[in-house]
Design a protein that fits this description.
A 9-stranded parallel beta sheet has the order 2-3-5-8-11-14-17-20-23, with helices on one face. It has an 8-stranded parallel beta sheet with strand order 4-6-9-12-15-18-21-24. The protein has a 7-stranded parallel beta sheet with strand order 7-10-13-16-19-22-25, with no helix packed on it. The longest helix is centred in the first third of the chain and has 9 residues. With 449 residues, it is mainly β. It has one domain. Strand 31 and strand 32 form a beta hairpin. Helices cover 3% and strands 32% of the residues. The protein has 2 helices and 33 strands.
């Protein structure tokens, strides 16, 4: 058995500092040749009168009657192979916010496209370290559209700064939409970010590669709440998705409950995803959801291996969910097995650490534990502080890297330069650094003196 120690003198990270990041950071968008810019000037739903002519105009006798709609702008963008942009300058109506109500499914996005709701007058991106203070001015409302997705793409798309609600699925990124981005967007809520306007399915459904939902930049923080299924579903054709810096299951304040009725993040049969991260600002708040915080489900198939693997779940604030914080198998708590932790299943059912003690003394807190897993392998142990009665992963405390011995075991010790509150509960996860697979959250250990 090896013994690993950390004597880092660091203070616990609150939800605010988990989310905090430099507002000057800029997200990467899919590369494509620059194309045209189409400006939506109407909340109407008329189609383009001549798709492909490079002019976003609808049928009408006057200039006012021919104002560009979102439907017409997508039709024009689909006619070009270049990456076009859709911006907004809607001046009709007395409200500061502008609601677009499609009467049927909007055209599937089939060519590279950027849709930017922050271009509408009065809209601002989030600048807050916690929660979101964004002002949303473009609302895409699906009450009249039927059982369809709000926005669906089969080509790379960047969606920024809009509210998508009351559809069957909020945003659907299908095969061909590799490299898409969803940034600074609200899915399943109203324009205030406080009321349930959920989509009847998942808020965001991904079946493409290299999709980014949120980022470390504050302006990119999404609010995904109130949906009738999972907040985010990473489907069987998804690969290498990154989900960072989002609020999943809360109101805009990042604390109050506005649950998705399913899991916060639901991974079905796909691999290679990163949910959260190791740097400040990359973690998500995943709270109050009707299922697990994050759930991984194997899909039975006679010809394909559809077992989620290489899914890293790092640095998040996971708390208050109806199910367990991280669920490998979507079947509740999975018991550890003996070394060399050779079982299969989602994330190969990576063993959890065991927190043995959490003791306050002088001006610090010492946490000790044990991990049993693969022999002579490296792991990242993440520590969390929770209120009594909610042993998930509320407040990220820090991490230590350890290596198991020939017996597959390692004892570890982590010191925090602060006195944690007595009676609060410490939990931990383990991530295999070679396989990039995170465990469920451990059982809790109360802080004592």
């Amino acid at each position: 058995m090896r013994i690993a120690r950390s004597s880092l003198a660091v203070a616990p990270l609150t939800i605010a500092t988990v989310l905090a990041a430099s507002a000057s950071l800029v997200s990467t968008v899919p590369a494509a040749a620059a194309g045209a810019t189409f400006t939506v000037r109407s909340t109407g739903d008329k189609p383009d009168r001549k798709p492909g002519d490079g002019k976003c105009e609808t049928q009408g006798q006057t200039t006012a009657a021919r104002r560009c709609t979102l439907r017409a702008a997508i039709q024009e963008a689909n006619a070009s192979p270049d990456q076009d942009r859709i911006r907004f300058n809607i001046t009709t109506g007395s409200n500061a916010w502008k609601t677009i109500r499609p009467r049927s499914a909007l055209p599937t996005i089939t060519a590279p496209l950027v849709i930017d709701g922050t271009t509408q007058s009065g809209a601002t991106a989030n600048a807050s370290a916690s929660g979101t203070d964004a002002r949303m001015r473009i609302i895409l409302l699906g009450t009249d559209a039927g059982s369809v997705a709000g926005l669906q793409a089969t080509a790379p798309v960047t969606i920024r700064g809009i509210v998508v609600s009351r559809f069957a699925r909020g945003i659907q990124l299908s095969a061909g939409s590799d490299g898409s981005r969803v940034l600074g967007t609200w899915v399943g809520v109203d324009r205030t970010g406080a009321l349930d306007r959920g989509n009847t399915g998942s808020g965001i459904l991904v079946n493409a590669r290299d999709v980014r939902i949120g980022s470390v930049a504050r302006a990119d923080r999404n609010l995904i709440a109130g949906n009738d299924s999972a907040g985010i579903s990473l489907g069987i054709a998804a690969r290498d998705a990154v989900v960072q810096g989002n609020l999943i299951g809360t109101t805009r304040d990042g604390r109050s409950a506005l649950p998705n009725r399913g899991d916060g993040v639901f991974v079905t049969g796909s691999r290679g995803h990163l949910i959260g991260g190791q740097s400040t600002g990359q973690g998500n708040v995943i709270a109050h959801n009707g299922g697990a915080g994050v759930s991984l489900l194997r899909i039975s198939s006679p010809s394909l291996d559809l077992t989620p693997r290489s899914v890293r779940i790092l640095g998040n604030s996971i708390t208050g969910n109806a199910g367990i914080g991280i669920d490998l198998g979507a079947d509740g708590t999975t018991p550890n097995d003996r070394a060399p932790d050779a079982d299969g299943g989602p994330n190969r059912l990576q063993n959890k650490p065991r927190v043995v003690s959490a003791v306050v003394g002088n001006a610090r807190t010492t946490i000790e534990g044990l991990l049993t897993s693969r022999r002579s392998k490296a792991y990242r142990i993440e520590l969390f502080q929770n209120s009594a009665g909610d042993p998930e992963g509320r407040t990220y405390l820090g991490a230590i890297e350890v290596t198991t011995g020939q017996d597959g075991k390692v004892s570890w010790r982590y010191r925090i330069g602060a006195r944690l509150a007595l009676g609060t509960v410490i939990t931990a996860t383990a991530t295999d650094l070679v396989r990039a697979e995170t465990s469920e959250i451990s059982g809790g250990r109360r802080v004592t003196d």
